[in-house]
Amino acid sequence: PSRSARRTTLRRGPIVIDFAHFSQVSAPGMQPLASALADRGLSTHIWLSDVDPLSIESSADMPDQSRELSEQLADASGLVIISPLILYSPAEVAVLERFVADGGRLLLVSDPDIFGDTAVVMNLVAEPFGIVFNDDYLYDTVTNDENYTHFFAGEYNDLAASLRGSRIAFYGGRSIDGDLTALVRSAPTTLSSRRSGVSGFTTVALGGLGAE
Hints:
- The protein is α/β, with parallel strands linked by helices.
- Helices cover 17% and strands 23% of the residues.
- Helix 2 runs parallel beside helix 3.
């Protein structure tokens, strides 16, 4: 979401979940999110592509879906993008920028444990909002939820401050950098597969549309 969105009223409308870029997340796996949003009076809508995935041999074969995306977001209050397999086109990214500038919310999730997830694909969407997902995965061999890649959050700040005292595990995640507000940081024992000698990684952040 945009940092400026804190000062605006949330648009009323469904939360769209993008499956049109062939994320390998299962639709039933979105049920906990849908239930949480329903408790807040928000419905969810799955966006499926009209493109036959069997006809796509590479990202270059994927047609632009900016018109369809605009239609999906016309009455939406938010969009969720999780580990897209297919690149967003520049025109599609432009639609997202307009959507956020108009008060829409955008949730980006990059999980290295999901098949096809790459930081470079997600960053095509994330970088205009000041967010950079690093090409790593986080792990913790000291304190974890029965798997070294199931690491615990260590620090909650800003809009996440109300979660202090909670024990929340991330079942896969990357470190995040950029022009952002860090909401959640990893525990001191959590390490990066590519960034040695560093700890306290940002794992949840609030971005925006340029400097304010």
